[in-house]
Amino acid sequence: MSTAQVPPVTAIGTPRITAGFDEYGRLDLLAHQEVHGGFAALSSGELIGLADRIELRGRGGAGFPFARKVRAVVDSCRRQELPPVIVVNATEGEPPSWKDKAILTRGPHLILDGAALAAAALDAEEIVIGVADDGVGQESLAAALAERKMPCPTRIVLVPHRFISGEGGALVRGINGEAHIPPGRKVRSSDNGVMGLPTLLSNAETYSQLAIAARLGPWEYNAVGIPEEPGTVMLTIGGSASAPAVVEAPTGTSLMEVLEMCGADIGPGLLVGGYHGKWVSAEQAKTIQISRKGFAKVGGTLGAGMLIPIGSKTCPVGEVAQVVQYLAGESAGQCGPCRIGLPDLARAVTLVSLGGNAVEQVRQAAGLVKGRGACSHPDGSSRFALSALEVFRADVQAHSNGEGCGKPVRGILPLPYTAEKGARKLALDWSRCDGHGLCSAVAPEIIRLDHNGFPAFPQTPLPPWLEDGARKAVNVCPALALRLTEPTTAK
């Protein structure tokens, strides 16, 4: 099974989750047992006690205490007299993130161990593992399942490789055969999840950490890292890093140590927590220790462990504009703040990147979507954009003055569709456009009219799921001014 798409994996200190990766590449069942050994089954009370003692929190972004999730499922099962379902979220839909895919492709049995522990402890009806349909990890996971016996029926569900598809509610909906989008209202999976059953849902690394802790016990597990957040974390270092990698590091490790080992040029800023995270300055980055508390000190978040230095050779404003356009395209389209507000935010940020004095428009657009969405997507997108204005203030000023920063947009912040065969972008022939406005009426999530009544839209490739709307807009243009073209990928 190829792991070529996944960045190199390394560790600071003694590896735990990544143990054996250097020696075996990918651990089949025999190698896995040789490296990690066996473990004893746990009761539900013992499972909760272990998770409590090691302060285990979800590693998918929100950092919710795992023990509280288990307690909620146990209580719900008793109250409803129903068996639970165990769900492993291994979708990893954010373009910069690779740490779960590294475990899927190289240490899949750890994920299965953690899921099996939870299933046996709770007497689960089924285990469901959600994996992205991008071809990374599915084959390795299926091979691992074929090598072993699980405590209950276990299946893999393929999920569209989209930003929002990995949200917990979206994953449950997808498993249930519905659209892979957030439900639009707060639904507790512990009460009503897969097929209406109480569902324990957590991310792939979380189950892997549980499997490590079951072998080591709380005392030895807590011997590594800082007391309030013991153990190790899996990190993805990308962006401007000359040696991008997935790194396993003990909590309390200096952020600069991790960045330096990956040859990262921070430049003016570093993105922490992914595309729903926050930009921090280079000076702030020098003060951070790897932990939730460490990132919180500078107003950031560890999230799903993505560290993305922007570097000094790309235009940060242009990079941010492309990502905000992407995030607008990732909308589930089920509420106004996403369907209308995020495109407005994307246009405002794009205007700043093109030399317009639109900083206040960005703040206004971000303020209008914040706290008003059916899910967290508008909040995360606005946080990404607003923190960029602050950290890249000098570059924003240079663009607003019409001078620009003089640097090209090099695609340091990865997007999933720029290299896809057949991805297209909208283009406008200004000599033909008469400002009829029909295109914006047909595809308002892509095209809006500017203050002169002419169409305005992102200059980056269209996500595939927005192509139908763009094609309809092209077809209704009476002047034949609008067209779809192949994208130009920045070098």
UniProtKB/TrEMBL annotation:
Family matches, as SUPFAM superfamilies: 4Fe-4S ferredoxins (SSF54862), Nqo1 FMN-binding domain-like (SSF142019), Nqo1 middle domain-like (SSF142984), Nqo1C-terminal domain-like (SSF140490)
Domain NADH-ubiquinone oxidoreductase 51kDa subunit iron-sulphur binding, residue spans: 317-362
Native source organism of the sequence: Actinoplanes lobatus
Domain of life: Bacteria
Name by which UniProt lists this protein: Oxidoreductase
InterPro entries linked: ComplexI_51kDa_subunit (IPR050837), Nuo51_FMN-bd (IPR011538), Nuo51_FMN-bd_sf (IPR037225), Nuop51_4Fe4S-bd (IPR019575), Nuop51_4Fe4S-bd_sf (IPR037207)
Keyword 4Fe-4S: yes
Known cofactor(s): FMN; [4Fe-4S] cluster
The entry's keywords: 4Fe-4S, Flavoprotein, FMN, Iron, Iron-sulfur, Metal-binding, Ubiquinone
Molecular-function annotations in GO: 4 iron, 4 sulfur cluster binding; metal ion binding; NADH dehydrogenase activity
